[in-house]
Each structure stands twice: as C-alpha cells, then as structure tokens.
Write a structure and sequence with these properties.
By secondary structure, the chain is an alpha/beta fold. Helix content is 54%, strand content 18%. It contains 22 helices and 20 strands. An 8-stranded mixed barrel has the order 12-13-15-16-17-18-19-20, surrounded by 4 helices. A 5-stranded mixed β-sheet has the order 6-7-5-10-11, sandwiched between helices. A 4-stranded antiparallel β-sheet has the order 2-1-4-3. It is rod-shaped, with a radius of gyration of 69 Å. The relative contact order is 0.05. The structure holds ligand C2E and magnesium ion (2 copies). Ligand C2E binds next to β13, α12, α13, β15 and β17.
C-alpha cells in the first residue's frame, strides 16, 4: 500500500487496494452490509412496482373488454340476427386485433335449430388469460332478447412480458446504483475513517517510549469544528505526553535505583572482600582461611590424604613498629608476604590473620618430609635482611606446624595447634620451625587449668613470697633479699613463677598480682628487718605490663608511704628486654621512681636486646648478671665476658649482682673480679621469711 512516509497514512490513490487487504476488513463488511440491505430494499420496491404495473395492465385489459361490450355488441347482434356469418367473422377479427385479445367465440342462443351458429376466431389458450362472456342483445322494440353470447378471451402474456422487462430494468439499474453508491460510501469511509485508523495503528505500532517521536497527526483538511478523530488524536497525544513524562520519571528513578544497586553491589563486594581478605596484603583472612581449611579437611578425608597447616609469626616484629613506625612495619609485612608466596605451590593458601601472624595451608601432602622442607624454606626466606628506608633490618620467623589428621580433625583445633607449635618454636629460641606434639597440647591443657584458677588466687590468699638473700661479697652478709612469688595449690603443691607469671601477663592479671607482691614485700621487710637487724633492701620483680601502666609509679609511692619502708630499701628489678619496649609511660614511671629514691636494677643482664642505650637514659643502681653467664665462668670466653660486664657496670657507677651462684669456684671467681653481690643456691634457696630468719643470725656472724 502506498503510504505517507511520515504519518504512515495510505495515499489517496491507494484506497482501492485497501479493499484487498486484511486491514480493510471494516470497509468490506460495510460494503457487504450496504449491498445486502440495498438488495433487500431493491427487491422489495421492485416487487411493489411490478405489482402496481400488473394491476394497471390487467385493469386496461378489463377496460378493453368493457369497451368491446359497449362498442361492438350492437353491431354483432345485428349481424347475428341476420345470420351473416362472413360479416360476423370480419367483425370478430376486427375485435381480435385489439391489444392483448387472444380468442373470440360467438354462439347463437335460443335457436330452435339443432346446430346453433357459432363463429370463433383466435386461438384459445389454456392459461394466463382473462375471459369474459358478453351477452349479445338485439336492440329495438320493448323487449331486448339475448340472441347470443360472445366469449372474449384476452391474454396476459404481454402483461407478464412487460413485467419481466420492467423487473429486469429495475434490478439492473438498482444493482448498478447500489454498487456504485457502495463503492462511493466505501471510498468516503476510507477517506474519512479507515485510513486514519490505519495511520493511528501504524503510529502506535512504531510508538516507542524510549525514542521520542513527533506527536500523532492525521493528514486531514483542517476544519473549524472538531470531530471524533481530532478528539482521539488530542487525547492520545495528551496520554502520550503523560506517558512520556511518567516514563522519563521512571527512567530517572530507575537510573537512580541502578546507581543505588551499583553502589550497594560495590559495597557488598567490598564488604565481602573485607570479610575475607586482609586489606594490607590482599591475602585471605582468618574467615577465608578457615573456610579453605575445612574444605581441605573434607577433601583430605575423602581422598585419604594428608594436609598441613603452618603458623608463621615474625620474631620481634613489634620492635620494627616501635622503632621505625607503622609505615615501615606495613612495608615489611608486604615484603614478608612476597617472600612467603615464593615458598608456596599453586594449590597452597597463604593467609594473614592479623598483626605479624601468617598461616599457610598445604593440602595434598605426601609425608612429613615434604612439610619439613617447606617449613625450612619458610624459615630460610627470612634469613636475608629487609631494606627499609635504605637500612637493613633482620626479622626472622618462628613457624609452628600441625598435620591433619594426625594432630586434629577440626579446622579450629588445627589453627590453635599450629599456633601452639609456633609458640614452642619461639620458646626454643625463635627463627625455627617446630611441629605440634601432644606434649605441647598437654602443656596447653595445663595452661588452661592455670588460667581458670589464677583468677581469684590473690583473693583466696594462695600467693606467697619466698625470699632469696643477695650476699654482699665485701661483708659476707646478705645486703638484700629478692622477693620471689610462689602459688600454693589446694593440694599443697607449689607453683613457681615460670609456670604462671606469663599466663597472668597474658590474662591481664599481672597488675593485681604485682601490686600484691610489692605491698607484701614492703610490709614484710619493714616488719621483720626493722625489728631484728639493720634495715636491708628488698628486691621486687616487675613485669612489663606493670611498668607500662600509668599508675605504677604513684602506686609504689603510696605503698612506701603506707608501709613506712624507706625508698632506698626497695629495689625494683626490671628485665633488660622490658626496656626495649620503651613506651612513654615506662619513661614516666622510671623517672618518678628515681625521683622517689627507689633503687632500680637490671635483671637477667645479657639475655635481652643487644642495645645498651637504655643505660644512658635511666639511672640504674644495680646490674644483675644472668645466671647463664655465671654458670659458664669456668669457660675462658664467658669468664672474660663476666669480667667485662663487671668492669663496665662499675665504670657506669652501678653495683653488680651475680645471679645463680652455685659453687665455691664461681664465688671465688666473682670475688676475684670484684663483683659486689652474689645470689644463688650456694648461699640459700629462696625461702619463706620465717625460715630465713633462722639463718639470719648465723649470716650476721659471718658463717656463710
Ligand atoms: P629472677 O628475677 O632472675 O629470679 C631468680 C630466679 O633464679 C628464681 O627463680 C630463683 O629461684 C632462681 N635461682 C636463684 N638462685 C639460683 C641458682 O643458684 N641456680 C638456679 N638454677 N636458679 C637460681 P624463680 O623463683 O623460679 O623465678 C623465676 C623468675 O620469675 C624470676 O627470675 C623473675 O623474673 C620471675 N619472678 C619471680 N617472682 C616474680 C614476681 O613477684 N613478679 C614478677 N613479675 N616476676 C617474678
Ligand atoms: Mg629478679
Ligand atoms: Mg634474674
């Protein structure tokens, strides 16, 4: 169909083909109904018309017969009276020539003869006739006798023929007229209605809210008044505008929604990432590690294979953070991650679960040897120094190894096994790997029992102090006593500090325990020594968390005031390693203690960090040489070392105490090298004060 490019309307010349198309359904139906109706009307009016014509023609025949009766009866009566047969024939033939006349028969009546006269013309027809019997009356005289009877027959064939012609004419003319009118109506209907409907339909088919199109317009001549199509077009355009606005709004809302969804999706992805990965190194975190561990366990169980879990902790990493700052610490962790990655196979998982603690999951392991090789490789990976800000730093690693299914069958227990094994590696001197053993596990169980019982030990009065004399080598008399804590169990067994002090530190209970030790030591020393002998010093061990607490200095000040012990009679023993952990609080506390006049000593000298710079910073009064050195004075190197330490301490104005003196030879060596004090089993084991008192008099009289 020819269509207008813009509006999709059929062109005016294209309306006829419309009939042939499915789309002209309304037009065809209209045509059909017009034809049906007009045919019915035509038939009806034709029938009426024919009936009228028939009546008229039959009436004119009747009138002709009347005319025959009126005009021809008297002349026929005269001829009949005279029995003039030829005349009668002439007369009858004359009548027969009148229109529609078919046959005439004149019969003589009242004749006495056996053969009355009968004259007939025309041919008698069986049907479609109108007949009449006309009496032939003799005129003249008073009587008017009927002398004959004329039977006149007129045919209706002519009438029927004319009716047929008329019907044909009417039907033909009406049919043609109806057809032409129908076509005209169809054309008009198409012009006025269907082409616009099609245009609307085409427009609607192409209508797309996503691509704004010009408003709907029909190709019509503009008129003053509005018609239905104008209403439809304006209503549709109005609706389309509303739809467009609603669609735009919807699109905006949708875009906003999509943005929201995108933000939410990113946020969820970030959350998911944060939930499973470590921010700094990008390694899986504890959650993801546990998930992979559980999967590895399932797989190993199914395949009857072995898996291993390594826990790696960087040794003294805290020192890096404290001395170089967190940025350097982070850089080191990233470098450590790279080194660890280099030790792994494709299928292994490296995770960081916080601080300087890493885990390596090794699925599908053949035997222990393979794990040992990887663990050794991990330790070796830390042999090279790290270069941070242009300086080399050595950070070693301690590795704990646990195996599935030998050591445990659950993810959590394998994690803690590896952790415990790592602590064991640290205990054994760090920079090594150690496999988890049941012994470690047993000790862990013990530790759990200790943890449970340690809380409330002070309140239950289970703690006590033993004292060990520190003998002045110039006078051979104890110049001080070191207070050493003991923990009595319900069954009477005594726990030594090595069994529970670190647990108390980890549990945050050392503050309360330390307070109790200091208070008890001050009070006991004050009571006993004041009464019996010249006042001696008491040495109290201090834990790192105590020294870091901002209330420690003030607490000691208060204790001294309460107990009445002169400050110079209290010596606080601080391990060398603790001074490396140089927090501002440590400095403030040490300064306050110095100001109070409390003596400070360095405990276990030689076992801690190698830097001696703290000796410049804090005014220590005493240096205690660790017993490991004293035990080795029979070796020339160690002897020289101890000698040097004594000289150095004296050079710095400090007194020197040798710890762990067990033999006369050791004592002789110390005397020879002018060591000031000695402490050890050679003189006495740590004892309760009541027992020490028994020995005090003997010591006073030089019987040591
Ligand atoms: P430390 O301060 O170096 O105390 C000396 C340790 O050496 C004591 O062990 C003592 O019994 C032991 N010892 C003394 N002479 C000898 C000897 O000749 N040979 C041998 N092999 N050992 C000797 P103890 O009592 O088990 O204390 C161990 C550590 O626990 C102490 O080492 C100290 O650092 C800590 N400690 C003890 N009491 C306390 C306390 O009240 N508070 C804190 N924070 N730590 C304490
Ligand atoms: Mg000590
Ligand atoms: Mg010591």
């Amino acid at each position: 169909m020819a269509a207008d490019g813009k509006t999709g309307q059929p062109s005016a010349s294209g309306w006829l083909p419309v009939l042939a198309e499915r789309r002209s359904g309304i037009g065809l139906r209209l045509l059909f109904f017009i034809l049906l109706f007009s045919s019915a009307v035509t038939l009806l009016s034709t029938a009426l018309q024919l009936y009228v014509n028939y009546r008229r023609d039959v009436g004119s025949i009747e009138r002709r017969l009347d005319e025959i009766e009126k005009s021809y009866a008297s002349s026929l009566a005269a001829s009949l009276w005279n029995l003039d047969v030829p005349q009668l024939k002439v007369q009858l033939e004359g009548i027969l020539r009148l229109p529609d006349m078919q046959a005439l028969e004149l019969r003589e009546l009242n004749s006495e003869s056996a053969n009355p006269l009968t004259v007939a013309v025309g041919r008698h027809a069986a049907s479609k006739t109108v007949a009449r019997d006309i009496p032939i009356v003799l005129a003249g005289g008073g009587k008017r006798p009927v002398i004959g009877m004329l039977h006149a027959e007129a045919t209706l064939a002519g009438v029927y023929e004319r009716l047929g012609d008329t019907a044909l004419l009417i039907l033909l003319s009406q049919g043609v007229k109806t057809f032409l009118v129908s076509l005209f109506i169809l054309y008009i209907f198409h012009r006025l209605v269907t082409r616009h409907l099609e245009a609307i339909s085409d427009y609607l088919k192409r209508y797309d809210l996503r691509q704004p199109s010009p408003p709907l317009a029909l190709r019509r001549t503009q008129r003053a008044g509005k018609d239905e199509f104008d209403d439809v077009v304006s209503s549709f355009n109005h609706m389309s505008m509303g739809l467009q606005l609603a669609y735009d709004e919807l699109r905006e809302v949708n875009a906003e929604l999509e943005r929201d969804i995108e933000v939410r999706r990113n946020y969820e992805a970030r959350l998911l990432r944060q939930a499973h990965y470590d921010d700094l190194t990008g390694l899986p975190n504890r959650l993801l590690l546990l998930d992979r561990l559980n999967r590895a366990i399932t797989e190993a169980t199914r395949e009857n294979s072995v898996a291993a879990l390594l826990c790696i902790d960087l040794d003294h990493f805290k020192n890096v953070n404290d001395t170089l700052g967190y940025r350097a610490g982070d850089a080191l962790l990233i470098m450590a991650t790279e080194r660890l990655r280099a030790c792994l196979r494709e299928c292994d998982t490296l995770a960081r679960i916080g601080g300087d603690e890493f885990f390596i999951l090794l699925p599908g392991i053949e035997d222990d040897c393979g794990v040992q090789a990887i663990a050794a490789r991990v330790v070796d990976a830390f042999a090279q120094p790290y270069v941070i800000d242009g300086h080399e730093h050595f950070v070693t690693a301690s590795v704990g190894v646990t195996m599935f299914p030998t050591d445990g069958v659950e993810g959590q227990s394998l994690l803690s096994n590896a952790d415990l094994a790592m602590y064991k590696a640290k205990e054994l001197g760090r920079n090594r790997y150690h496999f988890f053993t049941q012994e470690i596990n047993r000790r862990m169980q013990e530790r759990l029992v200790i943890e449970r019982r340690l809380r409330g030990a002070v309140a239950r009065r289970e703690l006590l102090l033993h004292y060990q004399p520190i003998v002045d080598l110039r006078t051979n008399v104890p110049g001080a006593f070191e207070a050493l804590i003991r923990w009595r169990q319900a069954d009477g067994t005594i726990y030594y500090p090595g069994q529970f002090i670190s647990v108390a530190e980890d549990m945050g209970l050392i503050g309360g325990i330390g307070d109790w030790v200091a208070a008890t030591a001050c009070a006991e020393m004050r009571r006993h020594l004041c009464e019996c002998l010249p006042l001696r010093r008491v040495a109290v061990n201090v834990s790192p968390p105590q020294l870091r607490s901002d209330r420690f200095g003030r607490h000691i000040e208060r204790l001294l005031a309460e107990s009445g012990l002169p400050p110079e009679c209290l010596e606080l023993e601080i391990t060398e390693g603790m001074l490396m952990d140089d927090t501002p609080e440590t400095g403030i506390n040490l300064k306050l203690l110095c100001d109070l006049g409390v003596r400070l000593s360095i405990d276990d000298f030689g076992t801690g960090y190698s830097s001696l710079s703290y000796l410049q910073r804090y005014p220590f009064d005493t240096l205690k040489i660790d017993r490991s050195f004293i035990a080795g004075v029979d070796k020339p190197n160690t002897a020289r070392l101890v000698e040097t330490i004594i000289t150095m301490a004296h050079g710095l104005g400090m007194e020197v105490i040798a710890e762990g003196v067990e033999t006369a030879e050791q004592l002789a060596f110390l005397r020879q090298h002018a060591c000031d004090f000695a402490q050890g089993y050679y003189f006495s084991r740590p004892l309760p004060f009541s027992e020490l008192e028994k020995n005090l008099a003997a010591w006073e009289h030089g019987k040591i």
